[in-house]
Automatic annotation (TrEMBL):
One Gene Ontology molecular-function label: sphingosine-1-phosphate phosphatase activity
InterPro entries: PAP2/HPO, PAP2/HPO_sf
Record-given protein name: LPPE2 protein
Classification via Pfam families: PAP2 (PF01569)
Ranges that cross the membrane: 117-135, 142-160, 172-190
Underlying gene: LPPE2
Keywords per UniProt: Membrane, Transmembrane, Transmembrane helix
């Protein structure tokens, strides 16, 4: 999966229900839905690649995205830069993990495929995800810009490190990659269920108080 790379590392981001309602009033519903569903669309595409290709490349890219996200979470805590005023999220925003991971995945695939058209579509999707984060008030342009730059560098380094595994995968290496991919996917799903319950509880609490 890809969502785990975007959300897994940083813990469960806290939300301010009042800010959620404020942001909802500023941004068209269609844009907000597209932003909210972007990680699931990316996940669907990556999961389809794992199932259809049945190779070591697809899960290897996801594992790299998770590793990059873990590093990003640490950077966020060190930099501790606030998200833009009015953002419904209250955790640090520099750099944008969505922009970083989307760019990481796109660049990783671009280094492995031969189609210029597909490469352009992948890179354009990463740009779209980054722009949506700004439009919806989750990040500043600087935060998504840094996320994009760091994601590009980390992706190129990750793919260089994995050249031997990708080009001449051994049975044991492939099994290890798939086991790690499956384990992190299960952990992510459990986290998303918990995250959804906490968010719904917060919104219900705010509704009762108002």
């Amino acid at each position: 999966m890809v969502c785990e790379a975007m959300d897994f590392a940083g813990g469960i981001a806290s939300t301010n229900p009042a800010r959620v309602q404020l942001a909802a009033g500023r941004v068209p519903a269609g844009i907000r839905k597209l932003d909210a569903s972007s990680k699931w669309l990316v996940t669907a595409g990556q999961t389809a690649a794992v199932v259809i290709r049945h190779d070591v490349l697809s899960p290897y890219i996801v594992l790299g995205g998770i590793a990059a996200s873990l590093l990003t979470a640490k950077i966020k805590r060190i930099v501790n830069q606030r998200r833009p005023a009015g953002s419904p999220l209250t955790d640090p925003g520099m750099p944008s993990s969505h922009a970083l991971v989307a760019t990481f995945m796109s660049v990783a695939w671009v280094t492995q495929i031969q189609s210029s058209m597909i490469s352009m579509m992948l890179l354009a999707s990463a740009v779209l995800i980054s722009v949506l984060r700004v439009i919806c008030g989750h990040h500043t342009w600087a935060q998504v810009g840094v996320g994009t730059a760091v994601g590009t560098v980390l992706s190129l380094v990750w793919m260089v490190l994995g050249q031997d595994i990708i080009r001449s995968p051994k049975s044991l290496e492939t099994k290890v990659v798939y086991v790690m991919y499956a384990a992190l996917s299960v952990l992510f799903l459990a986290k998303q269920i918990r995250k959804g319950r906490m968010r719904n509880a917060a919104l219900k609490s705010e509704s009762v108080l108002s």
